[in-house]
Amino acid sequence: MIDPHVTIEPSILYFGTPVVLISTQNEDGTANLAPMSSAWWLGWRCMLGLQTASKTPQNMIRTGQCVLNLASPAQADAVNKLARLTGTQTIPELKQRLGYSYEPHKFEVAGLTPIASQTVAPPRVLECPVQLEAVVMMRHGIMDDDPQVQGLISAFEVRITRVHVHPDLLMQGHENRIDPAKWQPLIMNFQKLYGVSSNEIVPSRLAEIEEQHYRMPDVDLAREAIALAARD
């Protein structure tokens, strides 16, 4: 058999991940908002890959909180407006080379609306169809085996404490299930923005498993925290 593939060395391996607008709280209590797309979920946990020195991860390290606002294609223009802005007044050399500029009022620049969260201090983004309040559980160094990169990139493990979705995304007849045919995430694919199709290619065998079987203890932990806060 002849292998039709070619061997290449691309500078990045960005094969497509959802765009997330992370909101965090600055030292003075104002909000920072930053787009990113190195994110993946498992249960009610999420892993976020970020440049450690940037404002968003620094706020997360300091406060232990954030909100993951998931963008749809309707927020593509807002994402572009935020794409090369930073909340760090002293811009790191790398970001200077990439053309970033300092902007303390990111919600206003992007034309987005901050609304109060229920379990964390950073605000949610009203326009985003999905908003996940979260607390930081752990930070892991990425590429720490390379002295040239050590300390520059971190993977943050966050635990979701509250899930907010637009009701149009819910599966008919279910209070707690999102219909994948209705949820259309904005995808970053090799630095370009794409939507996804609402057409299921083939029926998925995994979809035959009831979602309830994947439920993790973090869901109950989030409920307990809400109940405790209500009593206080």
Q: Could you characterize the architecture of this molecule?
A:
There is one protein chain. With 232 residues, the chain is of the alpha+beta class. The chain has one domain: Roll (Pnp Oxidase, Chain A). The chain is built from 5 helices and 14 strands. It has a 7-stranded antiparallel β-sheet with strand order 3-2-6-11-12-5-4, with helices on both faces. A hairpin with a 5-residue loop joins strand 2 and strand 3.
CATH structural architecture: Roll
**Please, what is the average pLDDT?**
91
Q: Level of helix content?
A: 10-25%
Count the domains. Answer: 1
- Unreliable runs, pLDDT <50, ≥5 residues? none
- Strand arrangement within the widest β-sheet reads 3-2-6-11-12-5-4
Topology diagram in text:
Layout lengths: L16 E2 L1 E6 L5 E6 L2 E4 L2 E7 L3 H9 L1 E6 L5 H7 L2 E2 L6 H5 L3 E2 L3 H5 L3 E2 L8 E2 L4 E13 L10 E13 L21 E3 L2 E3 L22 H15 L1
Parallel strand pairs: 7-8
Antiparallel strand pairs: 1-13, 2-3, 2-6, 4-5, 5-12, 6-11, 9-10, 11-12, 13-14
Feature tags:
Pnp Oxidase, Chain A, seven-stranded antiparallel beta sheet, three-stranded antiparallel beta sheet, 5 helices, 31% strand, globular
Brief write-up:
This protein has helices spanning 55-63, 76-82, 93-97, 106-110, 217-231; strands spanning 17-18, 20-25, 31-36, 39-42, 45-51, 65-70, 85-86, 101-102, 114-115, 124-125, 130-142, 153-165, 187-189, 192-194. By secondary structure, the chain is an alpha+beta fold.
